[in-house]
Amino acid sequence: MNDQAKGDEIQVGLVDADTHVESFRQTRSNRRTELLEDYVELIADLIDHDGEARQVDIAQRLGVAQPTVAKMLKRLAAEGLIQQRRYRGVFLTEEGKELARVSRERHQVVESFLCALGISPETARIDAEGIEHHVSAETLEAFRAFLKR
Q: Could you tell me the domains of the chain?
């Protein structure tokens, strides 16, 4: 093995405690925001496509019960990401629109990267849905740079 190849090897084994803590902290944080991002992205897509986002449509698209959606919509409202108007559906606040835009863009970069690696479009779409929430800014930038080549 040449020196460059040796330098590119990934070290396997136990990492130091601080690194371990930070990686798990980051993963837990990503999981907490994952649902918020999925909901605001879907709400933005429904508004763009149908002109409105209704609770029933959100439940159908996510494959969950309406009470589950109602609970999450209350959380999104408390976070300042949506506004609900009686009999008029769900609307994104400016903060919600920005989160949806960033989430959608991150998803598109990850999906495009996976397709560039030769992953089928259908698999890339599905895999990107999970990866997009856990990819760091550094990794996302590397994906972008790769795609520009």
A: 17-148 (1.10.10.10)
